[in-house]
Amino acid sequence: MQKSKLFSIITIACFCSIVLIPVGLALMWFMTSWKKKRKIIITAAGTVLYSSLVALILLVEPSYNTGGVSLPFKYSGGETAFESSVNPGKSSKKDKKTAPESDKKKKSDENKENTDEERLPRSVKKQSGRTLGRSFYVFLFFLIILILILWRNFHGAAKKDVYENPYVDTNLYKLPLAEDAKTPLVHFLRLKLNPDEKILYATETVQKDNEGDFVVTNQRAVIFSKTGASEIPLSSLTAVLSVSNSVMQLTNNGEEGEQKAYVFLPESQMKYALAIVRWAFSKV
């Protein structure tokens, strides 16, 4: 398994754990070959998600609100412990008379305390529930975004890398080429053109330890490599075919007789190279 792919899997695992998002972000920036734009998007989403998680943990706490609640103890008139010790056994007529009223008041206060004690947990629970609900929705929103981004990245990484031609936009070629087809502009500067010569197609070659370029004009096919460049006039071609998905064979009659040249191309470029060479040959 490639090193970059291994770190990509570890990074995704860190993101999925949520708690290890900072570790995943560090691995993503320093150990993976993901595109910079995607890294920036994931970093923004991961930062917001992790911040929301921290805020959820720190801010959602039980609320200790005692405002407007009667304390479980209270003082209602009567004699103190000192007075009781001085005059033990004595009780005034006034106390006896007001005893029923004091009992009623005491019961009323106890009922009020019970009502307040029942109301307090409900209000606290309601307030905490609202805060928890809002934080949960924010957390869930960013979690879904992060999962979608990671799934897209993982899905794209699982696909085979598609070669992007650095010299021409191959999407502009409409295959099969019509008789009067127009070719797009090719940005290739290494080839010195002859009078009335136009570059029709160019791509990189992928032969191991001998990489280069392959260029097709309306007059010739040119193969650039590390050892130099070889030209094949279109008028001398006798056969053009693909011997594999990435190797094209050009057969021509030269001064030394029939010669064969092999061009190693990216697989995605083979159909364009074949079509352009054949089309250009038909115009000679």
Annotation field: number of helices = 6
Number of strands: 7
Helix content, binned percent: 40-55%
Question: Spatial order of the strands in the main sheet?
Answer: 1-2-3-4
The end-to-end span amounts to 49 Å
Biggest sheet features:
4 strands, antiparallel
Write down the overall mean pLDDT. 77
Principal-axes shape call: elongated
Question: Can you tell me the residue ranges where pLDDT is under 50 for at least 5 consecutive residues?
Answer: 92-97
Strand content: 15-25%
Indicate the structural class.
alpha+beta
Radius of gyration: 42 Å
Question: Can you tell me about this structure?
Answer:
The chain is α+β, with helices and mostly antiparallel strands and about 280 residues long. It has 6 helices and 7 strands, in the order H-H-H-H-H-E-E-E-E-E-E-E-H. It has helices spanning about 5-15, 20-30, 35-60, 80-85, 95-160, 270-284; strands at about 200-205, 210-215, 220-225, 230-235, 235-240, 245-255, 255-265. It has a 4-stranded antiparallel β-sheet, covered by helices on one side. Strand 5 and strand 6 (about 245-255) form a beta hairpin. The relative contact order is 0.08. The model is unreliable at about 90-95 (pLDDT under 50).
Short account of what is shown:
It contains six helices and seven strands.
Write the layout of secondary structure elements.
Elements: H1 3-17, H2 21-31, H3 36-59, H4 81-86, H5 93-158, E1 199-205, E2 212-217, E3 220-225, E4 228-233, E5 237-242, E6 247-254, E7 257-264, H6 270-283
Antiparallel strand pairs: 1-2, 2-3, 3-4, 5-6, 6-7
